[in-house]
Specification:
single chain; alpha/beta; Rossmann fold; 6-stranded mixed β-sheet; about 40% helix; globular; binds zinc ion
């Protein structure tokens, strides 16, 4: 029995007759349209099956899934649009605890591959932003923040890359910290809610 090109689960024979190379869950995922935010995009909603894929890659360190996730990102039309507008690509540094646990830094791999495939420069976030993100995780406030990045003329168009957007805090912090950059962002997963009651 052949396997799904993405998650490697066996594909039933009726799907193969339909010429589908992905299992049902993966096919549904690939059909998702993505989300446009005020100053960036998210490619897939961070729930159900997709959330499992991310966690399996990040926490269980499934090295087979990582290249699949990277491909999924690189093939997405929103990715091509966003990368075309930027000069520099920068991964959002992973949280202190994430690095302590030695999980896979998905943002880093996506940024590296985007820079390579589309011929852009990759820069790492200035040292120090790591600690500020760590402090955030100690706070109890988990509200979504307005995604208004600072507008700066004559600055370097920079694309910030993260695995998932939740409150938008780490993206905003990095965008404010990079004083010579005009930032936009791209995340694989979207867990950001624009519900009014979550905004201040
Ligand atoms: Zn699959």
């Amino acid at each position: 029995m052949p396997n799904c090109l993405f998650c490697h689960a066996p594909i039933s024979s009726d799907l193969i007759q339909l010429n589908l190379r992905f299992c049902i869950s993966c096919s549904m995922l690939l059909d998702e349209p993505g989300v446009r935010h005020a100053c960036g995009v998210s490619l897939f909603s961070y729930q159900g099956y997709f959330r499992e894929l991310i966690l399996k890659t990040k926490v269980a360190k499934d090295h087979q899934l990582l290249p699949a996730l990277v491909d999924l990102c690189l093939e997405h039309p929103y990715t091509k649009e966003e990368v075309a507008r930027c000069e520099v690509i920068m991964p959002v540094p992973s949280s202190f605890w994430g690095r302590m646990r030695g999980g896979i830094d998905i943002a880093y791999f996506i940024a590296r591959e985007c820079a390579y495939q589309f011929g852009k420069r990759m820069r790492l976030a200035p040292f120090g932003s790591h600690w500020r993100i760590f402090k955030r995780s100690m706070q109890t406030q988990r509200q979504a923040m307005r995604l208004n990045f600072p507008r700066r003329r004559d600055s370097i168009p920079t694309l910030l890359i993260d695995d998932v957007i939740t409150t938008g805090f780490s993206l905003l912090q990095l965008a404010y910290k990079l004083e010579n950059s005009q930032c936009r962002f791209l995340t694989l997963g979207n867990a950001y809610s624009t519900r009014e009651d979550q905004l201040d």
